[in-house]
Amino acid sequence: QQQVKQSPQSLIVQKGGISIINCAYENTAFDYFPWYQQFPGKGPALLIAIRPDVSEKKEGRFTISFNKSAKQFSLHIMDSQPGDSATYFCAASSAYNTDKLIFGTGTRLQVFP
Amino acid sequence: GAVVSQHPSWVICKSGTSVKIECRSLDFQATTMFWYRQFPKQSLMLMATSNEGSKATYEQGVEKDKFLINHASLTLSTLTVTSAHPEDSSFYICSARLGRNQYFGPGTRLLVL
User: Fold this and answer.
1) Residue B33 forms beta bridges with which residues?
2) Which residues, in sequence order, are CB contacts of A69 under 8 Å at separation 6+?
3) Each residue's pLDDT expressed in tens, for chain B with a length of 113 residues
4) Are A44 and B44 inside 8 Å of each other by CB?
5) How close A56 comes to chain B (CA, Å)?
């Protein structure tokens, strides 16, 4: 119930392509869904976040798509660049326990020139 | 904005010694901070939630006498790994909450010999 399932585990994309990472959840109390980017040896950095009342949110080349009925959300990275190579984590939290972020297992993205 | 720092970034110590890690929110006040542990190629594991002026809340399986947490001010939380052993070697990351977001520090790599 508390899990957030993330796929794929790893992803290889050509420069200029679209990277797509998917996450699914079961707990309908989740109402806040952030994405984090983590480079090796560094802490995660908040990329973008979405709430269930919005189906899509875009910030630069990063877009979150949200499907409330399917309990799924995804991160799209347009025009992927080698500098985007990192591990991406989706996460979720609920209004009943805003302190607890439930993380996905992570996706290692490699963008080749 | 929303910058979190950690010190030190690297620490190597002998088995049996104690190590203190500091986490600071540099440009905002955080009543709640979090400590995570991350093993190689894995997701973040929440160890404890640190609230300013009160005792930390530890996750199941985390020894509170082993991992001492002090949240002395609205911008500083510390994690002390007491009597460290090689199995405590890991990447420790703190975060600070601002609204619904958690902003992470750069992490501290601990190696216990």
Assistant:
1) B50, B96
2) none
3) 799 999 999 999 999 999 999 999 999 999 999 999 999 999 999 999 999 888 999 999 999 999 999 998 999 999 999 999 999 999 999 999 999 999 999 999 999 99
4) yes
5) 18
